[in-house]
Amino acid sequence: IFAILLVFFSFVAFFISYFMSKRAMSPIIKSYMKQREFAADASHELRTPLSVILSSINALEMEKPLQEDEFSNSVLSNMKYEVKRMIKLVGDLLTLARSDAENTKLRKEVFDLHELSKKVVHSVETLADEKRITLKLNAPAKLFVYGNRARLDQLLYILLENAIKYSPEEAEVKLELTLKNEDKNKMLVILVEDQGIGIKPEERERIFERFYRTDKSRSKQLGGHGLGLAIAKWIVESHSGWIHVEGKSGKGSVFTIKIPQ
Ligand code: ADP
């Protein structure tokens, strides 16, 4: 009888604690979901007015009297710079808010990553030229991979833009793409190497956190919000891959990404 009572009471205790914990959890989950929705809605709503402000600034820049006035010119160009930064920030926040949604499944297809990476390299050429940085792309003539084209485009852009941003003038930035067999699995390996300011070992995990920026990069006032690598990590993980960074002997950093194929 004692054993039966013991089993009976432990069942009752188990069910009570199970339902209590469910009841206690649901407001937390609800408020988390509300917060997530709020972040997505707010970023989405902010995009339209910011784009309107940007096109108004562009229109003002075309005005002859303003073009001829040095002060108006510099005010307009400052405004334009800040609005562009905000548009970028809002876009990044929206991407991360959407990435938090559990039902975000990336649509994947087979496509030539070499072709795509040539396009990305081309899109960062102006940035590189400003600092006379040499961009090198090393990849097989055709590199068919399985993934989300738009997100892999964004991933390469984030890494190349950072490599350029955190490098001195006349440095070299290398993008290398390969397909490798690892433990009988095919892996897409992406390497982005730079000769820049480098990242201290104790900061190499933290740079993938949202809004984290190293002191070195803050002091250089290079702009940025510390969201790029958080997005990069989300993109890689939603392809079931992983990303990490190492220091390079001498100077600079190497970002390695592996994505199963
Ligand atoms: P940010 O907009 O600040 O560049 P990221 O999330 O892309 O944001 O990067 C986070 C931080 O990681 C940067 O602020 C910088 O301190 C560091 N970082 C990223 N890429 C590099 C790099 N190639 N070399 C040195 N530091 C880097």
Automatic annotation (TrEMBL):
- The EC number(s) given in the record are 2.7.13.3
Q: Where is the Histidine kinase domain?
A: 41-261
For this chain, one GO molecular function annotation is:
kinase activity
Q: Transmembrane: is it a keyword of this entry?
A: yes
Please state what class of enzyme this protein is: transferase
Q: Where are the transmembrane segments?
A: 1-20
Q: What are the protein's UniProt keywords?
A: ATP-binding, Kinase, Membrane, Nucleotide-binding, Phosphoprotein, Transferase, Transmembrane, Transmembrane helix, Two-component regulatory system
Q: What reactions does this protein catalyze?
A: ATP + protein L-histidine = ADP + protein N-phospho-L-histidine
**Where found?**
Membrane
**Name recorded for this polypeptide:** histidine kinase
Protein's organism:
Fictibacillus terranigra
